[in-house]
Amino acid sequence: MRKKISATIIGLSVACISLFPAGSAGSHGYTDAPTSRQAFCAQGAVEDCGEIQWEPQSVEGPKGFPSHGPADGTLCAGGNSRFAELDDPRGGAWPATQVTAGRSYTFRWRLTARHATTDFRYYLTNDHYRPDRPLTRADLDLQPFLTVPYGGRVPDATVTHQATIPAGRSGKQLVLAVWTIADTGNAFYACSDVQF
Predict the structure, then answer these.
(1) What is the CATH number of the domain that holds 127?
(2) Given a cut of 80, is residue 117 above it in pLDDT?
């Protein structure tokens, strides 16, 4: 009888554990409008992406950008070496979303785990940016063109923000989106290549 009870308890424990997939604690969020590099990798539209193809939501790094946060050259991977493929400029060949300077655009995050949020911020590259080099702070306007404060609230699973894309840009550029978490030391980073 004791063996049957023990076997039942072990069986139930295994069943309960299987309800919570491995890695779910590391799931968080990414942008898919404009399509981020990690989203392109997850869709299979870009090859040789490494682990990010299975974890587009996991680009988490230290918060405090731009004064703190990931080092230059590692911004698209959030400073996370596991996802270094996102920092590889691929000779400027990342797919890009068509956008129009001075026009309104709806930016969208997909959140697989929601967190108390400080804010969402969006940065755009400047005239010094070259799409064939890893992204640095010198390549960005360090004043975000859109900041959406959350004051510690927890966002929905899908978050959209409407903004006017700055005028005076042309060619291939990049949007760096940063989701800053209120109750941890981290933020989530997403790089989206855009074509004006």
Answers:
(1) 2.70.50.50
(2) yes
